[in-house]
Amino acid sequence: MTTRHWLQTGRRAFLLIMLAFFLAPFLWLATTAYKPSSAIFSIPPTFAFSPTLDQFRTIFRLFDVWSLLRSSVLIATGSVILSLALGVPAGYALARSKSRYAMGIAYFLMAIRMIPSVAALIPFYLMMRDIGLLGSWMSVVLINSMLNSAFVTWLMFSYFRGLPPELEEAALTDGCTQFGAFFKVALPAVMAGIIACVLFCLMFSWNDFLYPMFLTRLESKPLSVALLSAYGTKDITWGTLGALAHFSTIPIVIVILFLNRYFVQGLTKGIH
């Protein structure tokens, strides 16, 4: 065997080991949902067990799973729609601005998304309390939209800046209005960036824990907060955690797999 062949075999073996290392905890948690409680930490450990749905029956008995799922969907969907409605036009306006401060403003908005959530929690909490939204999922939508729209503005600024303005000028010459040139020419040309923004905002909002934890009530809490219920004062109910993780993970993974091509383009094409 040649040296090149050995190097290629070594790289593949290394990738397989790293893949197994990082996926092992998720695989263990997923299989835990189908194990009897007595088999989760059996000694000696066994990989052969009789699958059971007892853990799923337990979470449906202890939680209103459909209410948790509905709150997660409402928070994620509302945050995505509002973030795009604010961030996409703002990114376009900055990209077409003649101001020398446009790029600085775009990166300043990006810096807003980097503020630690815990640092902004108390001001947001007091603000939502004063306007009467404390305890509702709408309060989380507003906060996520404010943070995510800054990120959308920054990302779409890069996309629109890479779009030749001659396309819109040609549309204006043909009698199109400024709004029509934006809506019919610019937006379709950056659709990959918009879908990438949708995926980013969806992941940020779906997995958000801190703000829903403190700003929602029992009836408006999402799945990300319900996962904490598996942690008791004396032990951790791993079976409950594994079963709830299915409902928290599978919807977002399906969306990511379905739109994976646009997600990769958003990471590589729009940032320059």
CATH superfamily: MetI-like
Series of secondary-structure elements, N-terminal to C-terminal? HHHHHHHHHHHHHH
Helix content: over 70%
Q: Structural class, judged by helices and strands? A: mainly alpha
At the fold tier of CATH, the topology name is: MetI-like fold
Strand content: under 5%
Largest sheet: none
* N-to-C span: 42 Å
Number of structural domains = 1
Shape: globular
- DSSP strand tally: 0
Mind telling me the C-alpha Rg? 23 Å
- The CATH architecture would be Orthogonal Bundle
Which consecutive residue ranges, at least 5 long each, have pLDDT under 50? Answer: none
What is the level 1 CATH name?
A: Mainly Alpha
Total number of helices: 14
Domain ABC transmembrane type-1: 69-259
Protein name: Trehalose transport system permease protein SugB
Organism: Martelella mediterranea DSM 17316
Pfam families: BPD_transp_1
Structure overview:
The chain is mainly alpha-helical and 272 residues long. It has a single domain (62-270), classed as Orthogonal Bundle (MetI-like fold), CATH 1.10.3720.10. Helices cover 74% and strands 0% of the residues. The chain has helices at residues 3-32, 37-40, 54-62, 65-96, 102-113, 117-130, 137-161, 166-173, 178-189, 191-206, 210-215, 223-226, 238-258, 260-268. Helix 10 runs antiparallel to helix 13. The longest helix has 32 residues, at 65-96. Keywords: Cell membrane, Membrane, Transmembrane, Transmembrane helix, Transport. It is found in: Cell membrane. It comes from Martelella mediterranea DSM 17316. Belongs to the binding-protein-dependent transport system permease family.
